[in-house]
């Protein structure tokens, strides 16, 4: 009888430990509530990411550059706009570039920040407008960046680029601001034009970190995937790692660009 009680107690303790480990994970979601419903778009974003999470070029042409819509098959979604000949960089930190992004930043909740040694998973859906063009320079629609430390260049980006092989969406990685980009995977730009894509990025924020990336159509078809479980430098000696979503592009090859539109839906950040 005593042995049975000990086994039962050990089992109960093990279950408690497992439940504690599971409950330690936190997930934060940002979802559109649709046009003309619920909170105003900017307030909805700020309530989740923080009051200074939006870098939109509204002051350049007095237009709202992030709006909401309803899109089949995802339902409610956000639209990010850039106007080629009117908009600039609202941060004032660059010239010759345009930016319309939302971000995790110093004022965001700590559950959204990737501190050293932590593993975070970012999930979202996106669709590039069927008419949107890319240039020989960069067009980022997702970034993982360091807050502080070596933060001049992003660690990971999803970037549109015009290449000798054609227009591409590239998954890029950089171990430092001076190292240049490594293209981990690339797919035809047309693969994400007019088609909803589900993106998943999981990273361990460490000098000896890990990185996993997946791009899938909503029917489950894999467009691109990359995974390395160790040896990926995901730490830049800063305060934390943060995501940015939207459109950030160079105007140095402006003749190859046009007005841009990217749809986003169902953002989530899970800290494991």
From TrEMBL:
Q: Which residues form the signal peptide?
A: 1-24
Which keywords, in A-to-Z order, does the entry hold? Signal
What is the top-level taxon of the source organism? Bacteria
Asked if the Swiss-Prot or TrEMBL record annotates the protein with the keyword Signal, the reply is yes
KW Signal (keyword) present: yes
UniProt protein name = Polysaccharide lyase
Native species: Paenibacillus radicis
């Amino acid at each position: 009888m005593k042995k049975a009680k000990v086994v039962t107690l050990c089992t109960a303790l093990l279950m408690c430990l497992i439940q504690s480990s599971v409950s330690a994970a936190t997930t934060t979601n940002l979802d559109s509530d649709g046009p003309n419903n619920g909170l105003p778009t900017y307030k909805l974003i700020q309530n989740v990411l923080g009051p200074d999470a939006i870098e939109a070029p509204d002051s350049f042409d007095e237009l709202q550059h992030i709006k909401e819509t309803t899109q089949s098959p995802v339902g409610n979604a956000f639209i990010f706009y850039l106007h080629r000949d009117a908009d600039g960089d609202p941060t004032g930190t660059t010239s010759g570039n345009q930016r319309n992004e939302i971000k995790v930043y110093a004022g965001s909740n700590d559950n959204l920040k990737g501190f050293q040694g932590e593993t975070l998973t970012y999930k979202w859906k996106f669709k590039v407008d069927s008419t949107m063009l890319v240039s020989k320079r960069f067009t980022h629609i997702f970034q993982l960046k360091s807050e502080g430390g070596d933060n001049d260049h992003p660690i990971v980006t999803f970037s549109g680029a015009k290449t000798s092989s054609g227009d591409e969406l590239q998954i890029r990685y950089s171990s430092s601001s001076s190292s240049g980009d490594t293209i981990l995977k690339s797919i035809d730009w047309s693969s994400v034009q007019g088609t909803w894509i589900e993106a998943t990025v999981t990273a361990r924020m460490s000098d000896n970190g890990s990185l996993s990336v997946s791009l899938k159509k909503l029917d489950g078809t894999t467009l691109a995937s990359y995974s390395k479980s160790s040896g990926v430098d995901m730490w830049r000696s800063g305060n934390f790692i943060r995501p940015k979503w939207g459109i950030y592009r160079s105007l140095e090859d402006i003749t190859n660009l046009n007005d841009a539109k990217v749809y986003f839906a169902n953002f989530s950040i899970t800290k494991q």
